[in-house]
Amino acid sequence: MGKTSITFIADTHHYSRTLGDSGKAFAFRSDSDQKCLKETGAIIDSAFDYLSKSDCDAVCIAGDLTNDGERVCHEEFREKLYKLKESKKIYAVTATHDWCCDKNPRRFSGKNVYTDVPTLNHNDIYEFYKDFGVNDAFAEYKTTLGPASYAVNVGERITLLGLIDDKNGRDSAGYKQAHLDWICEQIKLAIKNGRVPVAMEHHLLIPHITPLFTKGACSPDREKIINAFADAGLKIIIVGHSHLQRIDNHVSPSGNEIYEINVGSLVGYPAPLVTVTADENKISVKTDYLKKFTFDGEELDAQSYLANHSVRVISVLFSAAAQNDRELFRQRLIALGINTEKLGKAFLPLFVTFKKLSNMTVTEAGTYINRIPFTEKIPQKSIDAYSSFTVQQIIEKTFLNILDGAREKYTLDSDFYKIVAGVFSVPVCVCKRMRIDGKPLELFTELYRAIDEILTGGSLSNETLKIFYKI
Ligand SMILES: [Fe+2]
Ligand SMILES: [Fe+2]
After folding, report:
1. Stretch 25-37: mean pLDDT, rounded?
2. Could you tell me the distance, in angstroms and rounded to a whole number, from the CA of residue 268 to the centre of ligand 2?
3. How many CA atoms lie within 13 Å of 161's alpha carbon, on the beta-carbon side?
4. In 12-153, which ranges are continuous DSSP H helix?
5. What is the pLDDT of residues 214-241, one digit of tens each?
6. How far, CA to CA in Å, does 58 sit from each of 55, 154, 183, 286?
7. Which ligand is nearest to the CA of 34?
8. Quick one: which ligand is closest to 35's CA?
């Protein structure tokens, strides 16, 4: 027997340009999103063209296929799938964005946003995407919402479980008990048949980087689910949703280890394509990144284009603060999904901090921070190494490390690490002294720990992995 390879992508979020791709309202929406909007069709076409020529046995997509479930986005996206299907098997799962769970589909024209956009109902998904999963499956489990989880054999080695984890029966992501039991049965059956089970779902089962950032992206039953999967014998699960590229592991109380690969969004930086290969004694994982795409007739370098787009979510905040436009700053925060009313009294200090930091150089910030008592002092050598940078640029570089799982690693002894640690020691230092019910405020101490994960990428590689097994 040979080997079997599957390439996974996630969160393609296809956006139809017929919904508007210019004007003030569209620009505001686009600038508030780490991933692209009007470029999605071009990025997906280039990625599918690359995949059609690759040697993988199948292409899998881990949910959030469309921008927000708009029917026109689904129709355009499915056409792209049918074209790729001429050369590759394709297995997809849908997620909450594919039936517009927030019931707020939008189109943009000039200054205006309209919500009169037809969407695909969750009950229509099973039929609409049956050529990309259930039609090839040997088993399926229909959820109460309509879409179905399925089990399909890929090549000689792998049984793929495409799982729909939209609802757990209590209005959160996850599975009802009968669904969870069905999945565990399929895992055991695959192993009994001498195949490697590989599962794909949309939501996270491990909070990557820190629960502070990603707990909300997980199923609330995540521990129960991941322990059940690991104990049934599953070694590897692919997820999307967070738009971050990470690999982490978990060991169940019974001692069974499982790895979760969080595949970042294809239409945002760093546009990862993650290939899982199973041979006779191991599963190996390798990550590639989209190199280029053609947009409106122009060939673009995908990595620099997507990185520049992603950091706009930060630069537009700095720009609003630099203009001293408090209302614009508030609107930008709202567009990022931040509840400014909940921020309450913290809104003004946040605005003032952004205003103060806008255009501040690392040299100015370093000198200022080093004068504050109790903060972590930044060595002059590190300040000098980044003297040509602004604080905004340091924050943007750090943000890219969050998205790409630290492709550029900054170790504890690096100048960059010392600068970022110094900057964050200011709020950490303040909050360490604050007490709620006699306990220290966890928020910023956790943030400090997260900085290490973000800059170093954590203890595991976020790009490659090897798991040895015996079937
Ligand atoms: Fe998404
Ligand atoms: Fe999602």
Report:
1. 96
2. 13
3. 29
4. 24-31, 40-53, 71-85, 125-128
5. 888 888 899 999 999 999 999 999 999 9
6. 9, 7, 21, 15
7. 1
8. 1
User: How far is residue 455's CA from residue 405's CA, in Å, rounded to a whole number?
Assistant: 8
d(CA 250, CA 341): 37
Average pLDDT, the chain: 93
Rounded to the nearest angstrom, the distance between the alpha carbon of 333 and the centre of ligand 1 is: 19
Q: Report pLDDT for 136.
A: 97
Q: How far is the CA of 319 from the centre of ligand 1 (A)?
A: 26
Near ion ligand 2, which residues have CB within 5 Å?
64, 241
Query: Which token pair is 207?
Result: 């909070």
Question: Which DSSP symbol is given to 204?
Answer: B
Q: Which domains does the chain have, with CATH numbers?
A: 4-304 (3.60.21.10), 311-456 (no CATH)
* Predicted confidence (pLDDT) at residue 470 exceeds the cutoff of 90: no
Closest by CA to 260, choosing from 283, 237, 242, is 237
User: CB count, 10 Å around CB of 359?
Assistant: 12
pTM: predicted TM-score of the whole model, two decimal places: 0.95
Left (φ > 0), alpha (ψ -120 to 50) or beta: where does 113 sit?
Answer: beta
The Å distance, Cα 11 to ligand 2 centre, comes to 7
